[in-house]
Amino acid sequence: MAALATTSSLSNYPRLTIAQYRDQLRQSGTASSIDLAYSYRGKAYRYSIELSKTAPHYGGSRYWFRCPSCSNRVAVLYCAGTYVCRGCIGACYGSQLQQPIDRLFSRADTIRQRLGWQSGIAHGSGTKPKGMHSKTFDRLVNEHDRLTAKIWQQTLDKLGCTH
């Protein structure tokens, strides 16, 4: 039996992305840090976050935050008082908190959405969406059938039904 996830999700924390500063950083060209001033849960914060710059293969440059806590190079920081990387917070992505059967449902829903079917276990119209290759359609329908069978099997196993 799988343990319930009790870790908090990253969606619980305010985010700060390097993309928010893209235009400002392009104009300056030589920025080495970004100054922050904000209030979080009634407490005022004011400090600088160090930046790192890399040269991608396609040319130009790309900026990164340096986590104030561990100095890792990251594109997103999360506010837990001060802004830090997700590793320092110890939070997980939402998908990492899902139970195994929930992952099966999520994948099946993604396939149904791609096929233009309604949410739920039952098949949709059975017609291939316009523009989708027949092999892709067949592969997705087969994967949906496998996932549906797993979902039913896990549900029956959980209920203690024998087969």
Question: How would you describe the overall organization of this protein?
Answer:
It is a single chain. The protein is built from four helices and seven strands. Strand 3 (43-54) and strand 4 (62-66) form a beta hairpin. It has two domains: 10-89, no CATH class; 98-159, no CATH class. Helix 3 runs antiparallel to helix 4 (134-159). The chain has helices at 22-28, 86-89, 100-115, 134-159; strands spanning 15-17, 33-40, 43-54, 62-66, 73-74, 76-80, 82-84. The two termini are 20 Å apart.
Which features does this protein show?
alpha+beta; 3-stranded antiparallel beta sheet; 4-stranded antiparallel beta sheet; disordered N terminus; 163 residues
What share of the residues lie within helices?
A: 25-40%
Number of spatially distinct domains: 2
Low-confidence stretches are 1-5
Number of helices: 4
Main sheet strand line-up: 2-3-4-5
Which percent band covers the strand fraction? Answer: 15-25%
Global outline:
elongated
Could you state the order of secondary-structure elements as H and E? EHEEEEEEHHH
Strand tally, please?
7
Helices, strands, pairings?
Layout: E1 15-17, H1 22-28, E2 33-40, E3 43-54, E4 62-66, E5 73-74, E6 76-80, E7 82-84, H2 86-89, H3 100-115, H4 134-159
Antiparallel strand pairs: 1-6, 2-3, 3-4, 4-5, 6-7
Helix pairs in contact: 3-4
